[in-house]
Design goal:
The chain has 14 helices and 17 strands. The protein is an alpha/beta fold. The protein has two domains: about 250 residues, Aldolase class I (TIM Barrel), CATH 3.20.20.70; about 70 residues, Arc Repressor Mutant, subunit A (Orthogonal Bundle). It has a nine-stranded mixed beta sheet, sandwiched between helices. The protein has a three-stranded antiparallel beta sheet with strand order 12-13-14, with no helix packed on it. α1 crosses α10.
Length: about 375
């Protein structure tokens, strides 16, 4: 199964897998100690981009590009500029509204800022996670609070949007430290905050350390209470919540992420990158050597492909819709259901309304403030 060449693709995701180190909680395709492959991998990305462009039927202008990793702020300047030169000569970039690159404190050189501006990057996503140096170092994340603050100030005024990622529930971060972090970041010259619950992914070093009781995670109820406090405090600081993990100053919501939430087509480029053409989800080969050889041979290497059934699409629409503050149309999540299943849906919906876990707004349903941290449970209950 290959990406549908007729999909109206307005967004690209480009994966840069190289890292100076790998965090113990990271589940992504990230490679530490393999910088020697950067040049060859860069050429492979260009080949994949060009071939995708040539295969498209009735292509449309690009609107968003997201460069993720790995640690994209380790992408050598001349290679990054060469990639953007390829993009500008290969795709219609006249409608681009947002180009994001992820950056980790401690990996950004001052001269990179001018390089990113020259490339046309408009948005920087900074991996802050925490300001507790000891906690981060214990999880093999080698950055300091001082580097975070320095980078935020360097980026301010040079890019139209700066976003930060933070993780709630990190072991060793006290409630007081977390509250101080939220209060401080409100004063930073940033436009967006992504706040994620810590996930312990199977196979990661963190997973094994938790399993061996070498690390103790904070109680779920305490983390959830901190989450609700954080939502209220961010709102008081001018950050509107538009998705369960996403907060933005007015007008600065992530445009690229909304492509995912709207289930619109996007093409992923690079090892392990996922694509969605509106009908199927497809993942590139994760092994860098196999991937590079395939690109040099002029062929795709796909390690996973799944046609999204109507039932799965309906459930995705429900889940992704409930995560957003604008909610989801009832008609979209009952489409195709038998009368019996529709009755069951409305019965469950009514029960959730009575518990104040769901609210109706016209023809839409959405989470209530008290159910923001229960999105998975609410979605599962409505998945009749």
């Amino acid at each position: 199964m290959r990406y549908n060449a007729q999909a109206q693709t307005e967004s690209l995701y480009i994966h840069w897998p190289f890292c100076p180190y790998k965090c113990h909680f990271c589940p992504f395709v990230a490679l530490a100690g393999q910088d020697a492959h950067m040049g060859r991998y860069h050429e492979s990305i260009k080949k994949e981009l060009i071939r995708f462009s040539e295969e498209q039927v009735n292509p449309v202008p690009l609107k968003t590009i997201y460069i993720g990793g790995g640690t994209p702020s380790t992408w050598p300047d001349e290679l990054l500029l060469d990639t953007f030169d390829t993009l500008k000569h290969t795709f219609d970039m006249r409608s681009i509204s947002e180009i994001t690159i992820e950056a980790n404190p401690g990996t950004v050189r001052l001269e990179q800022i001018a390089v990113w501006q020259k490339a046309g990057i408009t948005r920087i996503s900074v991996g802050v996670q925490s300001l507790n140096d000891v906690v981060l170092q214990n999880l093999n994340r080698k950055q300091s609070a001082a580097q975070v603050r320095q980078l935020i100030q360097q980026l301010a005024g040079n890019f139209s949007s700066v976003s930060i990622d933070i993780i709630i529930g990190l072991p060793g971060v006290s409630d007081q430290e977390w509250r101080e972090l939220i209060h401080e970041l409100i004063s930073w010259p940033i436009q967006h905050v992504s706040m994620y619950f810590l996930s312990v992914h199977e196979g990661t070093p963190l997973y094994f350390r938790v399993a061996r009781s070498q690390i103790t995670l904070p109680p779920d109820d305490e983390t959830v209470d901190l989450y609700y406090w954080s939502v209220a405090t961010l709102a008081s600081g001018g950050f509107e919540q538009y998705e369960t993990s996403s907060f933005a100053r007015p007008g600065w919501a992530s445009q690229h992420n909304q492509v995912y939430w709207d289930r619109k087509p996007f093409k992923g480029v690079g090892i392990g990158a996922w694509s969605f053409d509106g009908e199927a989800r497809i993942q590139n080969e994760k092994n860098i050597q196999i991937y590079m050889q395939a690109q040099e041979d002029g062929r795709d290497v796909i390690c996973s492909a799944e046609l999204v059934t109507e039932e799965a699409a309906r459930l995705e629409t429900l889940m992704l819709g409930l995560r957003r503050n604008k909610g989801v149309l009832i008609s979209d999540v009952i489409e195709g259901l038998t009368e019996e299943r529709q009755q069951l849906f409305f019965s469950r919906l009514e029960a959730l309304e009575e518990k104040k876990l769901i609210q109706k707004e016209g023809q839409k349903i959405k989470l209530t403030p008290m159910s923001l941290a229960l999105e998975n449970e609410v979605s599962a209950h409505l998945s009749v």
